[in-house]
Amino acid sequence: MKKHFLFLPALLSGVALVTLPSVCNATNPAGGTLSASTTTALTFVGTAPGTAADSEPDGIEGVNKDTYVLTVLPGVYTGKLISVTLSWTNPANDRDLYVFKRNLDGSNGQQVGQSAGGAPQTGESTSFDPTIYGAGQYNVEIIYFACTPNLDQPTGAITLFNAPTVRQATYTKGGMTFSSNSACKAPTAFSDGEPSSRVDAVGNAYVAGIQGVPAGVDLWYFDLRPTIPNPTNPAQTIKNPQYDPNMRVPIYRGKPDSPTTVAAQSQLQAGALGGGDIDVAVGFGNYSGDAGLGLNAAPNPVLAYASLTAANVTVGRSLDLGKTFQFNPVGNAAAGVPINDRQWMGFFDDHTVYLEYRNFAQGIAFAQQSTDGGLTYGPATLVGTLPQTGACDVDRFDGTVYISGDNGQVAVGTPASPGAAPSSYTIHQATPPGVNVANLFFPIRVAADHRQFNADGSSTLVSAGTVYGTYSDGANLYLIHSLDHGAHWSPPVRVNNPADTNLKLNVFPWLAAGPTPGSVGIVWYGTDSTTNNDNARWRVYYAQTFNATSDVPSFQYVRASDHTNHAANISLSGLVLTGGPNRNLLDYFQVNFDPVGAAEIAYTDDHNDFSGEVFATRQISGPSINAKLPNGPAKVPAPKAGSALPAQPFAVPGATPSTQGQPAPQPMQPGPNGEQVTDFAQDQDSGLLATTPSNNPIDIISIKYASQTLAQGPVITATMTVSDLTVPPPNCTWRMFFAANAPETGIIAISGNAYSKGLSDRGDQFYIQAATNAQGVASFTWGTAVRTFSGGITTTSQGAADGGTFNSSTRQISVTVSLSKLNTYLGSIQHKQIAARGTMCGLRGETFQTNSSGIALEDYTRGGTEFTIAKF
Q1: The whole model's pTM is what?
Q2: Is the model's pLDDT at 798 over the cut of 50?
């Protein structure tokens, strides 16, 4: 599958020029010079015979790669961009374009531009800002991905042009707050990310994250319904006793894309059919069901979903708030196009939903309509050529369907009548030409904002809505809008405050439209670093405006995450199978509004975990997006949780984690005896596929850390409890992690779901472990750990621990290491030594059993709270 390899621009100063070297088999000519006064285009032609370069790193100069060396002279380039384009004749040919700042030795440095669409098309284009990257030399590379050798050679052109006009804005920081961020946990999950989230009109909130094919997706439910129908008199409403305005209790619903069960889709099944991507959507109004299918629908808005496999989109729906699903294993294939990539969904009414996707073999987008709430889909309609699809939304007034591409284009499907499937789509350029918008997706939303208000406070849509789009150019965020069904678009306006030094780089934007013209909310990841590297600290930000369509919009913005969610580089490359940057945050996250107009955000986070995991938060003060509605709240009401929020019991060894198809409860953290790390019972797995529920020596229940002073001095002891330890089996490892000297420590004290906000990746990470060999003989060791550039954790053994025990009666493995050993190591690398009252974070554990084929069973925990070194 071909993916886009996109990288975040770094803010670099100018560098000294070097002599243009000769490049064998380069473009013709091999290079050229551009100055601030250049008015004509620099042109070149490719010369490589070329084909079969799977990606830029695979290109071989003179075989399937050409390089043009561009020299940018010092000068004043304010308001200018440098555009690089390729063009050819045959749309079946596929070349890609990359631009790098050139190192002194001629090799590629920072990537500054890229265009890597797929056939059919006849060109690629990108641009970069010389005021950001400075004077110097740049390698402009043509990658011959798949084309007829020696024919139809591409022509390149480099021009200096005026940057697009950007509207001015005013900015206000603060005035809104968000709840303590909740960790959403699932059994058998090493990672969960790229969350798709929705909130229906009454407040049922859903968050779904992907584990990867074939592990499937995980679904959580939050109850954001302030009121519910009175059970004894449905015509009346009462306060909802399970109202969770702080999003404190993520209720795990299991795997909706598992074909092996219907009731609750228990996680403990033999895999699923999806997990590559997920999108969920909710209907408007209560779904009445399908008389023809004999289904009795509950009086709830329908929840539809689509999960990506390697060659298909599997689909399904729930009529009872995600408790059970009707699953369609055929997915979209019955009347659609197989071998798909990046699907998105959008509802028109209570039962009509659209599914769109890109056929990545051809680079062509298609859309299908379902009239039964997402269970089955009609024939595929050609949308057009889009390098990658970015979002789908539907106008609730006239049924116009909008589909975006990551080249800044929007495809518009106009139905013959509201609710009918469009027979064709027209593609418009929404973003300014020459601007790179693929960081990573270009999301769009159409607002239900043209209303007629009635005397009783209700409203009726009277016109098609405003369409909004948001994008990052790799440094800044922009918002645009269309008032004429996507045919023409406004000049962009910058969302992030240019005066805020915490927002130097801003990526992964998403948006939600409010109920009145000009009301929009935008989320993104921002950092105070000038460069996207492992020194960056990323946080989640939220901005809100009520006059997005004015000449000078006003944005109010805050940090929505209560901790740093990522302390490393962020991959903007899509899927890179080997050697790529850190993709733990995957490719996007989303924002929605609940019935009282509060923003709900689900995002990906790896600050306290092995890999990316789903977190959620909700706006709890400040202006409601409904503020301009007649009788709407001017402010988000102060959160007052219901009187009967669901409990989060501790996982009990030996207990059945599934009752009548219901998934295991999320374990309380910390545990009842102060265990800093807890985990689901009976969730050990084999690869990405779960095992049959059973107690097992590999199945982690909890870990408790402590320090004390013994004869040899201060020591740290970690004790792991598993669900069975009758006989410690051979070829097993029980490993427990902690980190010293980490910044930003402190506990997010959510009742039953607490965790540390410390950045273990910026501290000194250690582990202690017990292991058995093939004969069952135990050893106890300690070592160091480090987060790699690509996002994984690398461990290095440092020698024997100071002791360890197996206790079969308590099912516990304990390992002890002395502070003297840890401090000797820290001294050798000139790092601060561990002292009394020092805080340890990054608490987590893993277990695995190996055989001749590799790992046979494994279990991982989520990140825990903290412990403090006792006084000595």
Answers
A1: 0.81
A2: yes
